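Hi everyone,

Forwarding the result from last night's run.
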Amino acid sequence: MPQPAEGVRVTLVPAAEAVHLVVREIHHVARVYSLFDVAQILLAGRNRYHLQFTLSDKAPSLFVSKKDQSLWLTKEEAVAHFWQSEAAAEYYESEETETEPPAGNFQVVARCGMSGEWLGPPNFHSYQSTLRRIHRERFPNLPFEVYASRVRTERGEEAVNAWLDTMRKRVRWRPKGGDDSAWRFDRSEIERDFATRLFPEVFDEVRSVEIPGDIPAKNMSHGLLACVRIAGSHARKHPAILIPAICRLLESEHLSVFKREGKLFTGPARPHPLTTDAVLAERPSIIVNWLEANPDKKLAALWAGVLPEGQTEPGNEWFADLFWLLTQGHVLLFADDSLVLPRRRAPQGGNAATAKDKEKAPAAKAAKKKKRKKRKRTRKPKVAVPSHAKLIRSISRMSPTRLKQLKGPALIWKRRLEKRGKISSLVQED
């Protein structure tokens, strides 16, 4: 089980396209959905959310492909993926050529235990380079020591001939548009050319990135894939973490979000209670009056209660009138078919003011006219600040005991006069 990459944080973000489809459905059916339910709907499919990767300060940068949005922890993983992807054909071309097989007396041939490819005799000069090439191309996420431990050897003429048949054809590569001198049989030379010359053209080095949630697992490092699995499991256990992002996307779609009984909902319109004196057409009035007399009923019960006798299915005119009430917010139809009539309010500006309100008005006006008694603030007596001449004169005549009690500016003047020998009591002591 691969360990999650350190310093990488993955957040599931609702896809704007998926939220747009939810908004279209809400407008079409005029129903009210809990945002918690909307979050669960978005988490039900990987194509309905995006994966947002952010790195801590100490984590190294990630490499994202501009071609297929694959994401990698290291440059080596990104290069290995490039050669397995369709993008390699855009920059390099390859072909098979007929060559003479190597001559010699071979008894043992090594074979890859995972892919089944022939590696050649362990004492053959290209054995190690072939072993590392297959590991680099096919299994870059597996430690080389683990991969090498799975290599098996086979004896016999049949195994040797099978390896020699693979050596009769060799593959060579060159950059697209190159001449004949650009052909290379050594794949590592072509890989170095891509890593030094074309890598920035195919991959971006990023600290944060957002990619589709339905990206194939093969297009991501194992450590990042482990982070994605942890983030997805946490989001499915706690769908409410998506609600802030869903609210922002719904607002951009001009869909209302409101709170009811401590929960957040979205629907075609905010609850807009009718006034008690509202005048409606015949069918909307019948629907509203029935819901007011029969609260918390289902849609089937409504049709059974309001349709004329003998009619079992509502006609288009009933559907149109109910749809109008729903889109105006006068009636709420929830996802479970339950109907709610927002509490009707008294009309404004008419005869709504009751007798009690009229009686309270004069009393309120009289209360405003009462003035609070102002408290008289007692002023502290002004302290006369002696002039410098008077202060100097009084300090020069003070006794030593009195001089020790001086503070502030008087202490500063005492030190000055003491240096000049102007304090009579101190001069007499000397």
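The chain has four domains: 8-61+207-266, 88-190, 282-340, 388-429.

Cheers,
N.
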